[in-house]
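quick one before i forget lol
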Amino acid sequence: MIWEWLIKALVLIFTLLIGFGYLTYYERRALAFIQSRLGPNRAGPQGLMQWMADAVKLIFKEELTPDNAYKLVFFLSPVVTMVPSIVIAAVIPWGPPVTLFGQTFNQYVADINVGILYLMSIASIAVYGIVLAGWSSNNKYAMMGGLRSSAQMISYELTLGLSFVVVILMAGSMSLVEIVEAQREVTWFAVIQPVGAILFFIATLAEVNRHPFDMPEAEQEIVAGYHTEYSGMKFALFFMAEYQKMIVISAIMTTLFFGGYLGPGVDRFPWLGPLYMAIKIIILLFFMIWVRASWPRIRYNRLMAFGWKVMLPLALALVFITATGILLADTMGNPWLMAIIPVLSLIAGWIATLMVDRSLRRKSYA
């Protein structure tokens, strides 16, 4: 049993590490396609070795530590940011059980009955690394980036947590394996709660500091934010953590809202599970890259106002709508009453969009 866990953990770690490298390549080529240019095409065939060239450059790059930095915390901060981005993937199911050599193996490292609680707790740890990096650098720009990050991530974690609550209500469980199996019986939860899936996607963009929510590292305002003083492999660890969190967040969203590893023939051929997961993750990653290529960075005060005045109330409304729809369906004994959930959710999302549009129009005329 211990050897099985060890092998699964090593496979997961190396998959994420290699996935990080090719995600940087994927992003640069996708951005180049959207912006009508070539992108990396020199290192290896079609530029496929570009991430290796970047890795070699960062490994041999000189590492500088500010004289007045808090050395121990300055050194540990990248590690505290990097480790949660790997550990959080332990409870994600990548496929149904598979039989090899007469023995059945599960395609996940661990299945705990409070899997969603585990995800939320590990995700909350990541903010410490960024805040400590900004504080330990003893630099005003870095400190400002750390403070921005802590305020932003804590604010949007509320919406993220309520999005998890919506899924828990629909699945009746906090185990990610049972959440996937619950979608086998009905349909993808993104179909039942489309606005909840969109809210989750927006909140995760803010959680991983992706554009247009990358205020903690806004180069035109605070140089590079919390990692201003970092270089070499210490900077690479922050870089790796961000891109690995993109992969893991996409895997979590796939599991919660898009059926996880479910797909045609997956029961007969269990190895199709990881393939379906990979396809869904790649599509979600493209949407993250597309947002970066299309949307301008918003002002910090509007970012915080959007989180507290729009996202949080809408998430609360979605929890109420989902609970009401489930209660009516159970009480009346008619599962078709669940159809009121997507209808009312879309109406709530439309009202929230109108309120945002009205607020922006007032400011433009002021």
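fyi The chain has a mean pLDDT of 83.
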